[in-house]
UniProtKB/TrEMBL annotation:
Domain Pyrroloquinoline quinone-dependent pyranose dehydrogenase beta-propeller: 97-483
Pfam family, one: TrAA12
Species for this entry: Xylaria grammica
Biased composition regions of type Basic and acidic residues, renumbered to the chain: 17-36
Protein name as it appears in the record: Pyrroloquinoline quinone-dependent pyranose dehydrogenase beta-propeller domain-containing protein
Length: 485
């Protein structure tokens, strides 16, 4: 079905404000198929979060500890070995960790810290909303020894990455992607930025995640969210919202690329694909914030299904060197998390549904032309940053937390166990219909009592050379690192 035909059968809906605190039949890049695994393996995946197996973290990025196994699914939760760096106030809120993990607070008082990276010399670079980009020198213990504002630009919102040679720094506002010459020795940047991409929307979801494929360092991947909760126009990929696109940065045209009309697609119908990460085969994965306040109308009867639907998503986007024009469902097809809320027919977790089925476009249509997620997460958890460990055996995801769900959910960092199939491809160990495909690694004592004033709100994730996983919290202005051993 063409985009125009699809658009013509959409049912008109009342627009809803965008979340306040989240910022065809055959796939072109099919995800790895591990469905042939034995029942015992699928049981293993479903039981992982129930304390019946072990999360393996062998050799997480840069981690060289000889005993690098941990068991975060033991029956008793860890009280967490917690401390703060010198001259850093203690954590604002109590948090737990999976057994074998501890956390340290390394920064306080930042202005809405979002995404973060390390440069080649181990300096920490953080986007601070309405401020710009701060740079932090680190000691051997992972603590900050000196801080400076490297780039003053209040328009920077989220995205940041470095070129493979560490000599070009990229960062994004809602409308544009900029570049600076970066000195990897001194950490200084050129005074005037270059314009790499322009023409992105300045409303709705304003985060623009940036990443460079490890095997194709001449490419820049940019995610762009929807303009509203249900952004009807995005059923047409030419609108260039709710989409991930790719640009060749080896030859940027004068004045930069136009985001809408240039570059190629890495998938569309992706409501707000904030987290992007490449697996060990350089295939792209993304985590998606799905919609709010959904209802299901069948035969004139409307049912509120929004508390536990739709699920948040883990999507396989594949090889970004090739155009991926597959449609992932938004703004029409949404993914089931709680089948019980959709009582008019039998659904499984991970299947897709429409709000108002009609003869020309219904749940069956979604199954025929939309790419479903590889794994689902609890509705309204708001996944943002995601990072693989060095062995690609776990994908860590920052769950920012719900803004209007009762009871609240999220406000934590989770790990999604991955494995390679017989063909060498990577995929979650859990089946697509599992509701236990992840493990809480860093979490509040009771997430149902969380809010932006009682819990942290994880955003960005980055590993340092020692294998410590750094986490920003925009609502509290804090930065932590998580470590094992």
């Amino acid at each position: 079905m063409t985009a125009a035909a699809m658009e013509s059968v959409l049912v008109e809906r009342v627009p809803i404000e965008v979340d306040q605190l989240e910022r065809g039949p055959k796939q072109l890049h099919p995800p790895p198929d591990h469905s042939a695994r034995s029942n015992s393996e699928n049981t293993y995946a479903d039981e992982t979060a129930l304390g019946k197996s072990t999360l393996r973290h062998e050799d997480i990025e840069g981690y060289s500890h000889s005993a690098d196994y941990c068991q975060p699914t033991a029956t008793a939760p860890s009280q967490a070995l917690v401390s703060s760096c010198p001259d850093t106030p203690g954590p604002l809120y109590p948090y737990m960790t999976a057994p074998g993990w501890s956390y340290v607070k390394v920064a306080d008082g930042l202005h809405s810290p979002r995404d973060l990276i390390f440069d080649g010399q181990g300096r920490l670079l953080i986007i601070e909303e309405e401020i710009g980009l701060s740079q932090h020198l680190m000691d051997a213990h992972g603590c900050i020894t000196h801080t400076r504002l490297l780039i003053e630009n209040p328009d920077l919102t989220h995205g940041i990455c470095l070129s493979a040679d560490r000599e070009t720094l990229y960062a994004s506002s809602s409308s544009s992607v900029f570049s600076w010459t970066y000195d990897p020795t001194t950490g200084n940047v050129s005074q005037n930025p270059g314009l790499v991409i322009s023409g992105m929307a300045t409303s709705g979801h304003i985060t623009r995640t940036l990443t460079i494929p490890p095997h194709r360092t001449d490419l820049l991947v940019v995610s762009h969210g929807s303009d509203s909760n249900i952004d009807q126009d995005t059923s047409n990929p030419k609108v260039a919202r709710a989409i991930v696109k790719v640009f060749n940065i080896s030859s940027v045209p004068m004045g930069g690329y136009n985001f809408v009309s240039q570059g190629w697609n890495a998938g569309f119908g992706l409501r707000n694909e904030v987290g992007l990460a490449f697996d060990g085969n350089n295939m792209l994965w993304g985590v998606e914030n799905s919609a709010d306040n959904l209802a299901r109308t069948v035969n004139g009867t409307t049912t509120d299904v929004h508390t536990d639907n739709p699920s948040e998503e883990l999507n396989f986007l594949g090889d970004v060197t090739l155009a991926n024009d597959d449609w992932y469902g938004y703004p029409v097809c949404f993914t089931v998390w709680s089948p019980d809320e959709l009582s008019d027919r039998v659904f499984k977790v991970g299947q897709q549904f429409v709000q108002t089925p009609i003869p020309d476009f219904n749940d069956g249509t979604c199954a025929q032309i939309s790419v479903p997620p590889v794994l689902s997460f609890q509705a309204h958890s708001a996944p943002l940053g995601c990072k693989f460990d060095a062995r690609f055996s776990n994908l860590f995801v920052a769950m920012h937390g719900s803004w209007n769900r009762q009871p609240p959910t999220g406000y934590k960092v989770i790990a999604v166990p991955f494995a390679q199939g017989p063909d060498g491809s990577y995929a979650p160990t859990a089946a697509s219909w599992s509701i236990r495909g992840s493990i809480d690694v860093f979490y509040p004592p009771d997430e149902t009592q969380c809010s932006s004033s009682t819990c942290i709100r994880p955003v960005g994730l980055a590993f340092d050379a020692a294998g410590r996983l750094y986490v920003t919290s925009d609502a509290s202005g804090e930065v932590f690192f998580l470590s094992q051993g």
